[in-house]
Specification:
The chain is mainly alpha-helical and about 180 residues long. It is built from nine helices and two strands; from the N terminus they run αααβααααβαα. A two-stranded parallel ribbon has the order 1-2.
Length: about 180
Amino acid sequence: MFQFQGERGSFMVNWPFVWSATQGAVDDGTLDQALLDDIGWATYPEVEQGTGSSPPIGGINLGIGAFSDHIEEAHDAVQCIVTPENQAYYFVHDGNPASHAEAYEDPEVLEAYPMAPVIRDSLEDAASRPQTPYYNEVSTGLQNTWHPPASVNPDSTPESSTDLIGSVLRGEKLL
């Protein structure tokens, strides 16, 4: 995020918390309003020509333990958390996009996140991330080897990326 907000920042694929963090930094006087004014947004690009956009979907993934002493209360809590009203509140105050489309119609969401309709459209087109308990390591490994884009070498980057991620997952390297 700090590189994006810096002198050479240009493109970023990230969660909406970047918008609210940048807005907060402008309000605190640590970043210029011109940076916030310069931020734009678009749907996730196609990866393969002719196929639609499929941004990776994330989420918080709420679950209830099978052996909980309070299954009914936990179920009630989950039902409360996933209401459009509570998802809208969480989105506005924490920057995590709602999973319920109705939350994107909330006036506070639209005021706090003018790009909310684009986020909603992206979520409607989203596909699951690779299923692995090591998603963070895989994602960080890809970011470390494929960024900045000018450093990508088609002859070596894919192999070095695979090697790094494999070494991290085997416990041979740290990110």
